[in-house]
Amino acid sequence: MDDLFESTVEILLDAAFDDARWGDAFEAIDRLCGLNGGQFTALAANGDGIAEPVFAACWIDGDPHREIVADWVENYAAVSENVPRIGRLPAWRLTHNEELFTPAEKRSSPMYNEFQPKYDCRDQLAVVVDRPSDERPEDGCLFWTMANGEAGWGSDKLKRIGALLPHIRQSVRLRRELVAAEAHAHAEATALLERDPPGTVFLDRHGAIASANRTARRMLAARDGIHEWRGGLRAGRPGDDARLQILVSRALPRLGHVPAGGSMSVRRPAGLPLIVHVHPVAPRRADFGAERVAAAVLVRDPDAGRLDAEAVGDMLGLTAAESRVAVLVGQGRTVRDIARELDRSENTIRWTLKNVLSKTGAERQADLVRLLLRLPPAGRDV
Fold it and tell me: pLDDT of 184-226, one tens digit each?
């Protein structure tokens, strides 16, 4: 594997931990793949179950171009025919821009005839980098549209782009987890202090545990899905442990190997599975074989801090049905999700939610969520 590819991957690994490095990462990607910049766009399902953009950022030659994003958001996002079609693409399928517009749209589309020529990006590829579930593409995704910096999309260029995709995906996944751990740092500072951060375990270049935060140490001591054995990190079930050891092996540095991250779920005796991300920690300079932290393992417990419906009902004066709906809203579920989970119609859920808002004095769902975040989590004394 050539030096330019390896250095690009290393910069991507750094960027997962340092926002200032994303410009360097995408400048390196442009150079490696012969691109003229590109835009990353995240889609997420809104309250009506329709995927809409929630994040967009454009880099050209490593420089952020907020004016391009602003122009797209203000004038074209709502009528961009290609965006919902990109959102439904299978992950990692490289698709040319021409395939995303019908012949009629190529004659009339503002996106195709105004925006793309204005920024010299009609000759571009689109690809879904990551999505929460391939079975439910309507839930959203993160996609990348990249502009060509030279004539043609040769096989070597496509091969390089394809080889980078898993590294881009994993860097973005880890960045998302780190950002989530810092969520509400300003507006919801109090709520953040009441929540446990994700468990974080750092491994040395041999895979031994170098350090762990308090949340991770508690998980390891409880042997609830993961534990320490002979200095290393292990999963409780043999099948899960085999997959975990493969992820750790891929993330650790060795000669002639570009470290790669990965994610998995780890089952446990009770409760939802743990979500585990294993990510390389690339050195910022040559380490000459020194003992150092080589991989970070983030472990998120979906059950941590989960509100108890009965306790919520007691504290807020809600019926059992109302408290169940309130808790699910607090966990970010949509009306459609709640109806499916509780086996009720969406109209019933909307009516119940209306009663919850009325009883709690919340004007909007966001107000209800803020109220729930201020309540003690399950198992904590009021």
Answer: 333 333 333 334 568 889 998 889 998 888 888 889 998 989 9
CB of 94 closer than 8 Å to CB of 125: yes
Could you tell me the pLDDT band of residue 376, with boundaries at 50, 70 and 90? Answer: low
Nearest alpha carbon to residue 173 among 202, 132, 223, 211: 132
Please report the pLDDT score of residue 243 as a whole number. Answer: 95
pLDDT digits (tens, 9 = 90+) for 99-125: 999 999 999 999 999 999 999 999 999
Dist. CA 366–CA 92, nearest whole Å: 34
Q: What is the 3-state secondary structure (H, E, C) of 62-73?
A: CEECHHHHHHHH
**Cα-to-chain-centroid distance, residue 86:** 17
**Which letter does DSSP use for residue 253 in this model?**
-
Q: What is the distance between the alpha carbons of residues 335 and 323, in angstroms, rounded to a whole number?
A: 14
200 contacts 233 by C-beta, under 8 angstroms:
no
Q: Which residues contact 352 (CB under 8 A, 6 or more apart)?
A: 321, 322, 325
Long-range contacts, 215-219 (Cβ 8 Å, 24+): 215/299, 216/299, 219/274, 219/299, 219/301
Residue pair 294/318 in contact (Cβ under 8 Å)? The answer is no
**pTM of the model as a whole:** 0.66
C-alpha–C-alpha distance, residues 228 and 214, integer Å: 14
Concatenated DSSP letters of 159-197: HHHHHHHHHHHHHHHHHHHHHHHTTTTTTTHHHHHHSPP
Closest CA to 216 of 100, 292, 304, 135: 304
Helix axes 335-342, 346-360, angle to 10 degrees: 110
